[in-house]
């Protein structure tokens, strides 16, 4: 039996590591509800993905290391990260031998190929976005059930290689392969959404049962052996049990009382003081790639006027937004589209008191209402009716109220409307709903600037009349789009040059101001007293395999 | 009926206090209860203190609104998570809550009276259809309706002929609450009308050649009025409780405006640190509902006298 | 007899049909409620969206969708949630039912016992301050919003005074099946029971007192007293027994409504995964299959309860039995 | 219309109710069964019988206050058997009713003046719609007529005693100067001392206004006092019909005889002379076959168990439904 | 002992019974004023009077069943020499149903609708006697049989609503008699019944005296019922005794104008039909607005000055009369008894 000590325990930033390494026991997790299907190729919810990373593997994986190091893809089921060939159009992976699914079967080349076909067969949400660049994906998107990806993903059983052919070079190809939807599942996994029945995986754990309204039980995968501790280390706890059903408030109380070791949901704001006073050692604060931003519809008045959008950017009190999110410890003011920690980030803030595009500041200081009012006056849109749509959650409503005050002080007849959280995000995307301005949050799928730029403002992501149109502002600028494309292309070969281009694109877009970035969020994790070795990865929060319980 | 008189007094007091909300906010508390201001300060014992108090613990996480100071000019009942004076919002909230619930109660009683009287008086197929309709209404989840309506009204508003109802229009919660409790109120009315229909004085009226409509208006309706009057405070109490849920679903009272329901919802998130934010409007609801019920009981007793003065033989 | 049954059944089907059509229409009339994009996932490509739409049949005419939905709900019973894709809603409701029944049954026992005690004591001491005090207490119970009361109770028992001797025995929120751990079951539920019962204690206590006081004026009570029976016997065997008829009919409907999901707020506040919470989940996620399943379940329960109440009426009241 | 033509006449009138719970199945209750009667102008027909024998139902049928199952009714020579409410409405002023329960028949929420004026408001007078002053004059006339103080008009029914309430009822029934008044046990609920006042009032009014009464009562002595003719009902049917004095002095039907004999009279020492019937009135849902009275009849013969006796003329202006009439 | 009672030791002796009830706003109203009477063993005494004259109240006071809050009962009611007014609850309960039983007007509402009549009779038996269930039921069936209920065994298992009015009243009587009470108070036992059934029940009541040896206080407003059933009669008017005495005397020579008026206003069933019925003007006074003097004064055709003070009961001949006329030497004329009814059925 291998000890998990193979992966050196690392001290996570924030709280303390308690106790000594301990293998065994049950890790008890709580969340207010399950998070959809247990099919890892379909589920797109961070709650499920966080658990999935200790159950499944792809050819590559984001390194299971604490902090920044976890942004980087490393070889997982593949022997090594291959060098791109054909100028970034071809990748050849060698599959590691001797790895077994929790069903006992060894992972073979055909499992890998089938898994990629399955992405399209089950209409995986990222099928188009992430894997549309594979040769043959077009046909698969049109006719999922008969997807072969012929010529796109080619397996060779004899030398255990899998060759990918892309239609165009992709700097983020490894990121996409590391993404959970590209997990390798047994080839005989049914080609439909599996619902509550999780398929076998290769990670240290396997899902024994799942009921999205009651809970989930996870136990060790008996066939697991560590092959690359960086990609998939062994776990400490013998069992992981998820219980659903408590409200966020109740989750905090229960975790404080030691009934659970970790709560998935965000700690409600009003409990922060109590946590700081009584349980500081059990709280861990970590950066995540998530932000709040105020989206303006560039096709609807008054926000079809660039001056108005800039005015909003000048007027918005980012500090107040930060306060509503829990103060400086819980989030940082965000002035630009690329948050810190990503390539392309540069300290840069044109929209603050005493700054403009000619003289940008490095950080946000205060709103510039006078300037904003002047811009509004110039735009001639004063007095128009503006409706701000926010999701009906306490934090967003508080932010919305303040933003409404801001819009009113700019001279607009402003309303704030909170709509059901469940549909808020699809609702604001659809141009038919004529949403003028809306508040939303956004989380990155992986640590690349494109996830904040191309995804949210790329022309290809604007689909009028569709519920799926993440370019909510409807922004599409030829020069900016050209920069996006160039940055993506350059990044394939030269990350550094690419970063500079991303930064340039960000600055250009900021001037057009299709949105007003507000804050970058942090994740505040509350754990039980007995949980040790808190271990945070940037993308997937606490890594369940690396914490121990006494 | 001294208890009923006291209850009526309490209600009058509540209404008066709510009406005086602007006075309280501007003259006494010197606060602007609809503007969130996280940087605001209040003066207490000559000392300036921030309304949103930073947590000076190791983590410096979050801000906690000031708790009850018990000084009318400085956040009497404390502040909410947006730094707004809870006491002032409570008074403003009373206006909306009382308005919505009383209008809803009246509307509900009127609709229930129409339905109950038609079902009870005409009987037969009319009764069957109306009763089943009531069953359907009773079983429909209100909140589904509310969520849908809130979404419909958010952007374009609800188009009703020439009228556009926006989501902050108080007609919406009033109408929804009224509709929801129609089956509840219509049932006893129907029963009462069914027994009245058999009453000898209705037979007497028919014998006099009085038309059905006139019998309905002159003989049935006045006798149902007792039932209606007794039901009204009960429905109003229920409406008060329902209003809170609807406000949460963005129907009716919209942020930053307040109602007791929305304040409870705000307070729900503060219940562990500043329970007063939720407890105060909760108590306001309890007191109002209590007073309404006592008033209802008193009314019933008072109105019942006439019916029972008849000596039992 | 048979025709009456058939008629009743017909009306029931009519009601269920009406409710389902309304729920269905309301759902699809809601802008943004189209589940395709939510099922497809954030940032899904248009092709994926179209594929999902086709796969779930959202591109079919509404009546076809309705029939399919109803068929899967009632006939094949394999209707799955839009949100938790593989989740079959019918078994889910069935799994949630025992939780709700545990909650409601326990609360019912409490509210019946306490309200009967309250009603009879108040009647026996009518006019005194005990009577007035009890009735006032009942009113306070009626006036408290249940979710508020639940939160405040949680605040006290789970957080503020959880460490004191008074509430240290209170387990965390949630549910333990009776078969697994009877004592745990009891300890988990006792507080939710009380909170849920408070409202009904108020209502039933007051209703019972009113009925009992009215019964006091009845001739048969006078007869019973003239027989030389003790006051207690007169009150309990004659007064209470006859007043119980209203009580029982009220109880039947309330019980059914609660078992059908009416205890939604209590379940949510106390983290009990019952039918009410399921309804709540369905509503906040706008998950039509789940909403439909819980609403239909609740409606069937209410209709069933109506029938049972009629039956119990027959048992309790010999007059009704003979159709007089 | 000739002088002897009946004001109201029923031919084989029947009224059946459907009763019983849905669960146990419906049953037919024959409240009134095959009744043929005629009431001539100016006379008083007394209708007697035990509780539940169908007196009130018959009274209501006469005025078409309920639908009729079978048979026919003519009022003033006009067939009103199937007349609709709208057709009947113009005839209502000429046919009125006074009810037993003086309280229940007055809407407790309306003032007495309002109640009495109701028929005046809904029906046109001889010169069109009545004016306020016409109505008020008529109200005072009516209160005088029935012996109510003028102040009564402003008060509510519950402020009056039973006797006064019955006067209000009578005033209302008389407001439109009807020809026919059906009085359904108008004195049964009253104390004896008040009962006499009301009976006198009825008789006075008949003298003064030439009214025709159908007077329903279960008290034989009251019926004897007021009626010119008497119809005795048993289980929905008329068993004896004839001149009041004749019927009550020498009854032909054994039931009538038993009824008379059972009346307790304020005369000491009479009790021993009673002829007691045994058993109770059978249910109208399952009436006995043959003569309906045979189960309690002291002189029943085997034939009574099978043959239904028809109402036969006995010569002296009397009719009885008995195979073996007395006298 | 009042002048009128001439038997041995009375079974029940009521003296100056006064019942005062609160009438709101701190006022009180005297429902019953200084009523006295005595009832001998195996005697049937009638109590007549119009509705509201206080008949039921008197009976309930004797039974200790007045529990209206604020009610005050003064005077005395001795049963076998034992004071009933103010008797402890427990002692009263032991008497009630066992020694003194009561039956009520409407047998439909006076029986608990949800229990079989057998159950209800058993209950009374077992409340006072140590009897097994089966023993109680046997006695119940026997009693029902005694009351002339056909097929008593099955009747015992029926619910009140399943029985006809007559049978229900028989069940009530059986229940009242179940413990062999020495005093039976019957509060309008036949008012809700038809005449033919009423005759049967009255017949039954009369037989009780011989079969069970009970005394009966028969409350009614029907002079005919009294004439037919009672040995002695007491006439109540507005909470006061107007007249009392042997029934025969009272009917032939009524001493009080009210008694006379009452008797006259009953339409005769035989003989001459009066053109108009003699009637008493007006209506009985509301207990709260009772005149200070003779309560009958406002309606009395003989009223004069001396009636302004309340007249005391005086013995005139066989009766006691609360009227000044006999004392003033102007007694009412004797009443002409109506003719006897002919026998209709062949013997
Ligand atoms: N609306 C009705 N539905 C069903 N049955 C009825 C209805 N009205 C009367 N009956 C029944 O019809 C029969 C005759 O009733 P009706 O009231 O005419 O009797 P009655 O002679 O007036 O009796 P009473 O002296 O008690 O007034 C009774 O058995 C009664 O129960
Ligand atoms: N609980 C009570 N409170 C106040 N007044 C009462 C109460 N009970 C009876 N009374 C009044 O007492 C008076 C006598 O009532 P009681 O019932 O003894 O009359 P009664 O002679 O039995 O009349 P009836 O013939 O109607 O039964 C009536 O005026 C009645 O209104
Ligand atoms: Mg009748
Ligand atoms: Mg009485």
UniProtKB/TrEMBL annotation, chain B:
Q: Indicate where this protein resides in the cell.
A: Cell membrane
Gene Ontology biological process terms in this record: peptide transport; protein transport; transmembrane transport
Record carries keyword Disulfide bond? no
Transmembrane region(s): 98-126, 138-158, 170-186, 220-242, 276-296
Is Secreted given among the entry's keywords? no
Q: Name one Pfam family in it.
A: BPD_transp_1
UniProt-listed SUPFAM superfamilies: MetI-like
Q: Which UniProt keywords apply?
A: Cell membrane, Membrane, Peptide transport, Protein transport, Transmembrane, Transmembrane helix, Transport
Main subcellular location? membrane
Q: State the membrane topology.
A: Multi-pass membrane protein
Q: Where does the ABC transmembrane type-1 domain start and stop, copy by copy?
A: 94-296
> An example Gene Ontology cellular component term from the record?
plasma membrane
Q: Which domain of life is it from?
A: Bacteria
Q: Which PANTHER family match?
A: D,D-DIPEPTIDE TRANSPORT SYSTEM PERMEASE PROTEIN DDPC-RELATED (PTHR43386:SF1), OLIGOPEPTIDE TRANSPORT SYSTEM PERMEASE PROTEIN APPC (PTHR43386)
The family assignment reads:
Belongs to the binding-protein-dependent transport system permease family.
Q: What is this protein called?
A: ABC transporter permease
TrEMBL record, chain C:
Q: Name one Pfam family in it.
A: BPD_transp_1_N
Gene3D superfamilies reported in the protein's UniProt record: MetI-like (1.10.3720.10)
Q: Does the keyword Transport apply?
A: yes
| Keyword terms of this UniProt record | Cell membrane, Membrane, Transmembrane, Transmembrane helix, Transport
Segments spanning the bilayer are 12-30, 99-121, 133-150, 185-204, 244-270, 290-316
Origin, by domain of life?
Bacteria
Which parts of the sequence belong to the ABC transmembrane type-1 domain?
A: 97-313
Q: List GO terms (cellular component aspect).
A: plasma membrane
Localization per record: Cell membrane
Q: Which GO terms describe its biological process?
A: transmembrane transport
Acyltransferase listed as a keyword: no
Please give the SUPFAM superfamilies that the UniProt record associates with this protein: MetI-like
Stated membrane topology is: Multi-pass membrane protein
Q: State the similarity comment.
A: Belongs to the binding-protein-dependent transport system permease family.
Protein name according to UniProt = ABC transporter permease
From TrEMBL, chain D:
**Which Pfam families does the annotation name?**
ABC_tran, oligo_HPY
| Location in the cell | Cell inner membrane
The GO terms describing molecular function are: ATP binding; ATP hydrolysis activity
Q: Which InterPro entries does this UniProt record tie to the protein?
A: AAA+_ATPase, ABC_transp_ATP-bind, ABC_transporter-like_ATP-bd, ABC_transporter-like_CS, Oligopep_ABC_C, P-loop_NTPase
Membrane topology per the record?
A: Peripheral membrane protein
Q: Which part of the chain is the ABC transporter domain?
A: 8-260
Q: Which GO terms describe its cellular component?
A: plasma membrane
Q: Which domain of life is it from?
A: Bacteria
List keywords of the entry alphabetically.
ATP-binding, Nucleotide-binding, Transport
For this protein, the record's SMART domains field holds: AAA (SM00382)
Q: Which GO terms describe its biological process?
A: peptide transport; transmembrane transport
Record-stated family: Belongs to the ABC transporter superfamily.
Protein's name according to its UniProt entry: ATP-binding cassette domain-containing protein
Protein's organism: Lichenicola cladoniae
Q: What is the lineage of its organism?
A: Bacteria, Pseudomonadati, Pseudomonadota, Alphaproteobacteria, Acetobacterales
From TrEMBL, chain E:
- Keyword list, A-Z: ATP-binding, Cell membrane, Membrane, Nucleotide-binding, Transport
Q: Per its record, what are the GO molecular function terms? A: ATP binding; ATP hydrolysis activity
In what way does this protein cross or attach to the membrane?
Peripheral membrane protein
Write down the superkingdom of origin: Bacteria
| Transport listed as a keyword | yes
Record localization: Cell inner membrane
Pfam families (UniProt xref): ABC_tran, oligo_HPY
An example GO BP is: peptide transport
GO cellular component terms, A-Z: plasma membrane
Q: Which InterPro entries match?
A: AAA+_ATPase, ABC_Ni/Peptide_Import, ABC_transporter-like_ATP-bd, Oligopep_ABC_C, P-loop_NTPase
The UniProt record lists the ABC transporter domain at: 12-263
- Describe the family membership recorded for this protein in Swiss-Prot or TrEMBL: Belongs to the ABC transporter superfamily.
Q: Which NCBIfam families does the annotation name?
A: oligo_HPY
Return the protein name.
ABC transporter ATP-binding protein
């Amino acid at each position: 039996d291998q000890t998990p000590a193979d992966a050196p325990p690392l001290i996570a930033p924030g709280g303390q590591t308690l106790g000594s390494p301990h293998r065994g026991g049950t890790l008890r997790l709580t969340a207010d509800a399950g998070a959809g299907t247990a099919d890892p190729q379909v589920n797109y919810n961070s709650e499920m993905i966080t658990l999935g990373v200790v159950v499944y593997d792809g050819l590559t994986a984001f390194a299971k290391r604490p902090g920044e190091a976890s942004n980087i893809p490393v070889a997982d089921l593949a022997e090594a990260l291959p060098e791109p060939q054909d100028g970034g159009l071809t990748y050849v992976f060698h599959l590691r031998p001797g790895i077994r699914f929790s069903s006992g079967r060894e992972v073979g080349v055909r499992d890998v190929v089938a898994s990629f076909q399955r992405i399209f067969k089950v209409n995986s949400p990222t099928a188009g976005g992430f894997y549309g660049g594979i040769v043959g994906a077009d046909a698969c998107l049109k006719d999922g059930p008969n997807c072969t990806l012929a010529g796109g993903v080619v397996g060779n059983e004899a030398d255990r290689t899998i060759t990918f052919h892309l239609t165009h070079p992709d700097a983020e190809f490894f990121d996409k392969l590391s993404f959970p939807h590209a997990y390798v599942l047994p080839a005989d996994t049914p080609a439909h959404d599996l619902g509550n029945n999780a398929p076998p995986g290769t990670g240290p754990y396997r899902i024994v049962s799942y009921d999205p309204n009651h809970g989930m039980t996870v136990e060790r995968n008996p066939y697991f052996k560590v092959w690359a501790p960086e990609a998939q280390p062994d776990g400490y706890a013998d069992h992981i049990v998820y219980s659903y059903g408590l409200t966020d408030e109740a989750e905090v109380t229960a975790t404080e009382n030691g009934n659970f070791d970790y709560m998935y949901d965000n700690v409600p704001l009003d409990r922060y003081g109590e946590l700081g006073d009584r349980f500081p050692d059990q709280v861990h604060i970590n950066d995540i790639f998530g932000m709040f931003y105020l989206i303006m519809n560039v096709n609807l008045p008054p926000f079809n006027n660039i001056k108005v959008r800039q005015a909003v950017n000048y007027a918005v009190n980012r500090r107040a937004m930060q306060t509503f999110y829990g103060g400086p410890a819980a989030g940082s003011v965000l002035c630009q589209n690329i948050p810190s920690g990503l390539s392309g980030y540069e300290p840069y803030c044109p929209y603050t008191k005493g700054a403009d595009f000619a003289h940008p500041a490095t950080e946000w200081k205060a709103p510039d209402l006078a300037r904003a009012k002047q811009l509004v006056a110039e735009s001639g849109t004063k007095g128009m009716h503006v409706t701000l749509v926010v999701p009906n959650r306490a934090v967003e409503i508080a932010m919305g109220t303040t933003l409404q005050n801001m819009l009113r002080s700019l001279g607009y007849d402003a309303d704030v409307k909170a709509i059901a959280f469940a549909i808020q995000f699809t609702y604001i995307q659809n141009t038919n709903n004529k949403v003028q301005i809306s508040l939303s949050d956004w989380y990155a799928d992986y640590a690349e600037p494109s996830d904040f730029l191309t995804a949210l403002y790329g022309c290809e992501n604007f689909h009028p009349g569709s519920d799926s149109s993440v370019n909510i502002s409807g922004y599409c600028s030829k020069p900016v789009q050209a920069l996006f494309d160039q940055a993506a292309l350059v990044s394939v070969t030269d990350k550094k040059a690419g970063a500079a281009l991303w930064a340039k694109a960000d600055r250009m877009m900021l001037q057009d101001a299709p949105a007003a970035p507000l804050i970058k969020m942090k994740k505040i994790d509350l754990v039980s007293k007995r949980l040790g070795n808190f271990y945070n990865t940037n993308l997937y929060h606490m890594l369940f395999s690396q914490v121990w319980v006494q | 009926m001294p208890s009923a008189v006291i209850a009526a007094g309490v209600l009058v007091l509540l209404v008066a206090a709510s009406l005086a909300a602007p006075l309280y906010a501007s003259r006494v508390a010197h606060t602007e209860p609809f503007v969130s201001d996280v940087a605001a300060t209040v003066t207490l014992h000559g000392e300036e203190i921030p309304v949103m108090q930073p947590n000076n613990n190791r983590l410096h996480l979050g801000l906690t609104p000031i708790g009850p100071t018990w000084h009318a000019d400085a956040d009497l009942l404390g502040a909410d998570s947006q730094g707004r004076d809870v006491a002032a919002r409570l008074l403003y909230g009373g206006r909306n809550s009382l308005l919505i619930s009383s209008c809803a109660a009246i509307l509900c009683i009127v609709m229930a009276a129409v339905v109950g009287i038609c079902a009870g008086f005409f009987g037969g197929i009319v009764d069957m259809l109306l009763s089943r309709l009531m069953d359907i209404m009773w079983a429909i989840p209100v909140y589904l309706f509310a969520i849908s309506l809130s979404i419909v009204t958010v952007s374009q508003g609800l188009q009703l002929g020439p009228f556009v109802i926006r989501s902050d229009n108080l007609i919406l919660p009033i109408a929804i609450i009224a509709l929801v409790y129609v089956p509840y109120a219509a049932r006893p009315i129907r029963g009462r009308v069914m027994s009245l229909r058999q009453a000898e004085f209705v037979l007497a009226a028919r014998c006099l050649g009085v038309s059905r409509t006139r019998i309905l208006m002159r003989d049935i309706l006045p006798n149902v009025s007792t039932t209606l009057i007794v039901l009204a405070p009960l429905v109003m109490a229920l409406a008060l409780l329902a209003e809170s849920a609807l406000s949460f679903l963005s129907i009716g009272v919209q942020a930053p405006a307040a109602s007791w329901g929305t304040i409870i919802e705000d307070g729900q998130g503060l219940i562990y640190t500043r329970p007063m934010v939720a407890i105060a409007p909760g108590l306001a609801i309890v007191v109002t509902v209590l007073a309404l019920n006592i008033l209802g009981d008193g009314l019933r007793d008072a109105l019942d006298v006439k019916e029972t003065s008849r000596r039992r033989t | 007899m048979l025709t009456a049954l058939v008629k009743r059944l017909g009306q029931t089907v009519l009601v269920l049909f009406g409710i389902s059509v309304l729920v269905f229409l309301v759902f699809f009339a809601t802008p943004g409620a189209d589940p395709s994009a939510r099922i497809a996932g954030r940032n899904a490509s248009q092709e994926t969206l179209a594929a999902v739409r086709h796969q779930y049949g959202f591109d079919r005419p509404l009546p076809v969708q309705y029939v399919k939905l109803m068929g899967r709900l009632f006939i094949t019973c394999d209707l799955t949630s839009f949100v938790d894709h593989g989740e079959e809603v019918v078994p889910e409701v069935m799994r949630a039912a025992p939780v709700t029944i545990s909650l409601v049954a326990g609360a019912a026992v409490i509210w019946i016992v306490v309200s009967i005690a309250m009603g009879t004591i108040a009647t026996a001491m009518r006019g005194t301050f005990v009577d007035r005090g009890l009735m006032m207490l009942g009113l306070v119970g009626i006036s408290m919003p249940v979710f508020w009361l639940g939160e405040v109770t949680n605040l006290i028992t789970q957080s503020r005074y959880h460490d004191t001797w008074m509430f240290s025995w209170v387990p965390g929120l949630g549910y333990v099946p009776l078969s697994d751990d009877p004592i745990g079951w009891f300890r988990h539920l006792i507080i939710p029971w009380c909170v849920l019962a408070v409202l009904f204690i108020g209502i039933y206590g007051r209703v019972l007192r009113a009925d009992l006081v009215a019964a006091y004026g009845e001739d048969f009570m006078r007869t019973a007293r003239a027989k030389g029976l003790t006051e207690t016997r007169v009150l309990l065997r004659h007064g209470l027994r006859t007043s119980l008829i209203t009580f029982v009919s009220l109880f039947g409907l309330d019980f059914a409504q609660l078992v059908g999901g009416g205890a939604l707020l209590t379940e949510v506040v106390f983290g009990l995964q019952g039918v009410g919470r399921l309804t709540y989940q369905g509503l906040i996620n706008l998950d039509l299959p789940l909403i439909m399943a819980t609403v239909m379940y609740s409606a069937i329960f209410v209709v069933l309860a109506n029938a049972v109440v009629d039956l119990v009426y027959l048992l309790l009241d010999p007059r009704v039995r003979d159709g007089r | 219309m000739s002088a002897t033509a009946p004001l109201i006449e029923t031919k084989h009138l029947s009224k059946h109710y459907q009763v019983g719970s849905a669960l146990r199945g419906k049953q037919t209750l024959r409240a009134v069964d095959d009744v043929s009667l005629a009431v001539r102008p100016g006379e008083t027909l007394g209708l007697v019988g035990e509780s539940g024998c169908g007196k009130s139902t018959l009274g209501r049928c006469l005025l078409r206050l309920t639908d009729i199952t079978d048979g026919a009714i003519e009022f003033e020579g006009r067939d009103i058997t199937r007349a609709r409410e709208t057709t009947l409405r113009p005839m209502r002023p000429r046919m009125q009713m006074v009810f037993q329960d003086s309280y229940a028949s007055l809407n407790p929420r309306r003032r007495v003046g309002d109640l009495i004026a109701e028929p005046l408001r809904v029906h046109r007078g001889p010169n069109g719609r009545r004016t306020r002053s016409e109505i008020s004059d008529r109200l005072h006339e009516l209160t005088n007529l029935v012996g109510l103080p003028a102040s009564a008009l402003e008060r509510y029914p519950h402020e009056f005693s039973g006797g006064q309430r019955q006067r209000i009822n009578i005033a209302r029934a008389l407001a439109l100067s009807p020809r026919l008044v059906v009085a359904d046990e108008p004195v049964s609920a009253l104390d004896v001392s008040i009962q006499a006042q009301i009976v006198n009032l009825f008789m006075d009014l008949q003298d003064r206004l030439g009214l025709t009464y159908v007077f329903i009562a279960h008290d034989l002595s009251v019926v004897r006092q007021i009626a010119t003719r008497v119809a005795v009902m048993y289980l929905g049917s008329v068993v004896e019909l004839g001149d009041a004095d004749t019927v009550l002095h020498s009854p032909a039907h054994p039931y009538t005889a038993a009824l008379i004999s059972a009346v307790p009279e304020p005369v000491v020492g009479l009790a021993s002379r009673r002829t007691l019937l045994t058993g109770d009135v059978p249910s109208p849902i399952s009436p006995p076959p043959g003569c309906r009275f045979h189960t309690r009849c002291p002189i029943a013969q085997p034939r009574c168990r099978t043959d239904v006796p028809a109402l036969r003329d006995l010569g002296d202006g009397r009719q009885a439904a008995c195979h073996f009439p007395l006298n | 002992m009042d002048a009128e009672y001439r038997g041995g030791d009375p079974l029940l002796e009521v003296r100056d019974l006064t019942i005062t009830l609160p009438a709101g706003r701190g006022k009180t109203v005297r429902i019953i004023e200084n009523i006295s009477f005595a009832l001998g063993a195996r005697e049937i005494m009638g109590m007549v009077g119009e509705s509201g004259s206080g008949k039921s109240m008197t009976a309930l006071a004797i039974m200790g069943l007045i529990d209206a809050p604020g009610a005050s009962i003064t005077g005395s009611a001795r049963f076998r020499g034992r004071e009933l007014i103010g008797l402890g609850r427990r002692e009263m309960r032991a008497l009630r149903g066992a020694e003194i039983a009561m039956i009520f007007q409407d047998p439909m509402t006076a029986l608990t609708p949800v229990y079989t009549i057998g159950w209800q009779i058993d209950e009374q038996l077992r409340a006072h006697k140590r009897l097994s269930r089966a023993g109680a039921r046997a006695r119940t069936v026997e009693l029902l049989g005694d009351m002339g209920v056909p097929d008593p065994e099955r009747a015992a298992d029926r619910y009140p609503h399943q029985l006809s009015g007559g049978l229900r009243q028989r069940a009530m009587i059986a229940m009242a008699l179940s413990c062999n009470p020495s005093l039976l108070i019957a509060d309008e036992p036949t008012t809700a019944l038809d005449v033919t059934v009423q005759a049967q029940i009255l017949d039954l009541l009369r037989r009780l005296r011989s079969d069970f040896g009970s005394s009966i206080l028969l409350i009614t407003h029907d002079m005919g019922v009294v004439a037919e059933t009672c040995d002695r009669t007491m006439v109540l008017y507005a909470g006061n005794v107007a007249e009392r005495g042997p029934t025969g005397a009272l009917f032939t020579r009524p001493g009080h104008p009210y008694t006379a008026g009452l008797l006259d206003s009953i339409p005769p069933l035989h003989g001459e039909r009066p053109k108009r019925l003699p009637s008493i003007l007006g209506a009985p006074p509301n207990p709260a607005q009772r005149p200070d003097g003779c309560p009958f004064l406002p309606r009395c055709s003989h009223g004069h000055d001396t009636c302004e003070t309340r007249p005391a009961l005086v013995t005139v001949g066989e009766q006691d009369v609360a009227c000044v006329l006999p004392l003033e030497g102007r007694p009412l004329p004797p009443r002409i008894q109506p003719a006897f009814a002919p026998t209709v059925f062949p013997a």
